[in-house]
Q: What sequence folds into this?
């Protein structure tokens, strides 16, 4: 019998309709009748009276009915003959998975289905080579014969004695649910499956026990709450429940079976009239590859058929297991040169063919680690410009750096330390005999803190001397925010780096041939830099810092006197100094915005999330090696967190061992 429109015969109360509303592109809609999917729908449907039947889909007094590809009668259940005919007429399959899917729909009718289908199932494994041998042909015919024989499964009788026959082998387990009906042994259902890779390592006893547990779970609707007998050909299962110290796996299975009323009976294999699987020893799939027959006639036939297509060149079709090796040879080998995927694909497509050749080459080249470590990405560089906020007063933010080691001067100095103020652009320089922490500390105290006050922020590179405990302590005592540039990104302290370049140009104009007098020239070339007008601010650093113009030797020869050193003049000079500093700040902001527009036009925005794997640009230089031949990118590294729009915290990450190492901050 078939009920007309099913659940839709039951109307939903108007007060409850909003609870089952659903969203569409046109808004919310509510069901007026009961839809499918509600948790209480089956109980409500069965409890209602006065349901309407669909006469077109009802049969009365029929001895046999067809439903869902099966015929159900008083004798039992059997497959639909039309479906069986489709299996019988099935040609030698090119798509094994499709054929097995058709047979699996009726696997409950086929005894030893797992065993019969085993030779075909091995062809579906990922790394398996497709070889259609006599073994596969026999399995193909065996499955068709098993269905054509029209097996009939009996209907389950709650009052009849029930037996569950189980068995296991090295690669599969199976079961048959049997009942004694009218003095005859009737099959209710067959079931079988292959073992997983870990399960194949179980001992014989564990596999036999697994077969019993799996079969009981499979037929739980029939067996739960009913007394039944398990028929086994493995004697150890009869006493396994009495083990004093069972393994964890056996103990866990034993607990799962305690809710069933089970009696285990042993019968030797030769006395079992209906063995389940009687699964044979593991099928040997490692047979030698059969000799390929001569393809001369086949090739002539194919060429004759396709001659009308205008094909001039025939290419070999490469099997799956050889494709990776061929792509690797045409990209990684010295004769390939690690070229791009277009050039690699062009070489391959003239020699070989397989479906998805272009995609295979592109994916391989894009994931080549050696190419990633050396070649730049053919697109705009990542990251937009993020200028630092302009400061309010002189020496609120300064940059400090050591511009490399110089030849030892006559005064015994080897290093130069520089400091630049980010508002006025004023520069301080000093020659040092060494670049150790005490010398750096002395410079910071005497030349910066005692003369201009403690800065709020100091920017340095990541040199070891700037990370020493001595520098850390002086910054802590003076409440200085010490910020270091990210690795391999000196642009963070760009003002100081630009001054160092200008300073080197000025020193080179006056240094002697042996470069031994640079420390004597250093203060002289620093003065004109501070007294010259800066392009960004349009003002002189000396004037912005001191509020007056710097006087030179010419000024002493031709003295310049203002209108008078009156109180009004001094006040006006003070006001001009404040206005000049404010003007310098505004011009700095304008220059930053201009630089940002130019920079961003040539770069692209990027965003990395926590957990992403990235490569890091590290132009490492090594003595004796050519910089042009060194790798530029290193990794892989994992993003830990995002610190700003262009700054990230990363950690070394090995995708094979999942091992995380030292953290670092990069631009």
A:
């Amino acid at each position: 019998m078939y009920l007309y429109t099913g659940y839709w015969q039951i109307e939903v109360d108007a007060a409850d309709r909003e609870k089952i509303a659903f969203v569409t592109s046109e808004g919310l809609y509510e069901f007026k009748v009961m839809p499918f999917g509600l948790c209480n729908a089956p109980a409500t449907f069965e409890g209602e009276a006065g349901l309407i039947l669909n006469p077109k889909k009802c049969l009365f007094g029929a001895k046999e009915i067809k439903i869902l590809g099966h015929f159900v009668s008083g004798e039992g259940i059997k497959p639909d003959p039309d479906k069986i005919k489709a299996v019988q007429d099935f040609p030698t399959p090119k798509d094994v998975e499709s054929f097995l899917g058709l047979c699996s729909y009726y696997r409950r009718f086929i005894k030893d289905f797992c065993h019969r289908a085993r030779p075909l199932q091995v062809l579906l494994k990922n790394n398996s080579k497709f070889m259609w041998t006599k073994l596969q042909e026999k399995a193909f015919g065996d499955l068709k014969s098993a269905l054509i024989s029209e097996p009939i499964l009996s209907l389950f009788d709650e009052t009849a004695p029930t037996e569950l026959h189980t068995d296991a082998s090295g690669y599969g387990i199976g079961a048959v649910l049997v009942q004694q009906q009218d003095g005859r042994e009737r099959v209710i259902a067959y079931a079988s499956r292959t073992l997983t890779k870990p399960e194949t390592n179980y001992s014989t006893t564990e596999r036999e026990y697994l077969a019993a547990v799996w079969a009981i779970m499979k037929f739980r609707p029939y067996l739960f709450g009913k007394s039944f007998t398990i028929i086994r050909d493995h004697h150890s299962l009869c006493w396994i429940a009495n083990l004093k110290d069972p393994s964890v796996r056996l103990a866990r299975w034993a607990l799962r079976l305690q809710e069933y009323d089970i009696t285990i009976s042993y019968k030797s294999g030769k006395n079992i009239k209906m063995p389940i699987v009687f699964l044979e020893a593991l099928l040997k799939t490692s047979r030698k590859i059969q000799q390929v027959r001569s393809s001369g006639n086949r090739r002539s036939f194919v060429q004759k058929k396709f001659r009308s297509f205008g094909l001039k060149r025939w290419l070999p079709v490469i099997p799956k297991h050889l494709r990776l090796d061929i792509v690797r040879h045409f990209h990684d080998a010295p004769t390939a040169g690690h070229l791009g995927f277009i050039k690699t694909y062009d070489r391959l497509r003239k020699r070989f063919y397989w479906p998805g050749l272009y995609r295979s080459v592109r994916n391989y080249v894009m994931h080549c680690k050696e190419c990633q470590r050396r070649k730049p990405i053919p697109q705009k560089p990542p990251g937009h410009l993020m200028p630092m906020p302009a400061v309010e007063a002189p020496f609120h933010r300064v940059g400090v750096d050591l511009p490399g080691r110089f030849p030892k001067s006559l005064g015994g100095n080897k290093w130069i330390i520089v400091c630049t103020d980010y508002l006025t652009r004023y520069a301080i320089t000093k020659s040092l005999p060494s670049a150790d922490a005490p010398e750096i500390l002395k410079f910071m105290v005497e030349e910066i803190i005692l003369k201009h006050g403690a800065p709020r922020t100091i920017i340095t590179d990541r040199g070891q001397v700037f990370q020493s405990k001595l520098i850390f302590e002086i910054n802590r005592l003076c409440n200085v925010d010490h910020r270091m540039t990210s690795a391999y990104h000196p642009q963070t302290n760009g003002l100081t780096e630009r001054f160092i370049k200008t300073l080197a140009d000025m020193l080179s104009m006056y240094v002697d041939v042996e470069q031994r007098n640079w420390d004597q020239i250093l203060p002289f070339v620093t003065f004109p830099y501070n007294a010259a007008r800066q392009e960004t601010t349009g003002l002189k650093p000396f004037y912005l810092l001191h509020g007056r113009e710097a006087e030179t030797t010419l000024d002493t020869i031709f003295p310049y006197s203002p209108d008078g050193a009156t109180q009004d003049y001094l006040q006006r000079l003070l006001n001009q100094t404040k206005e000049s500093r404010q003007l310098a700040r505004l011009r700095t902001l304008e220059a930053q915005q201009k630089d940002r527009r130019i920079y961003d036009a040539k770069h692209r925005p990027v965003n990395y999330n926590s957990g992403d794997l990235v490569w890091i640009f590290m132009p490492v230089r090594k003595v004796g090696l050519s910089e042009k031949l060194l790798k530029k990118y290193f990794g892989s590294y994992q993003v830990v967190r995002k610190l700003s729009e262009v700054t990230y915290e990363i950690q070394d990450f090995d995708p094979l061992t999942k091992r995380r190492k030292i953290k670092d901050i990069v631009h």
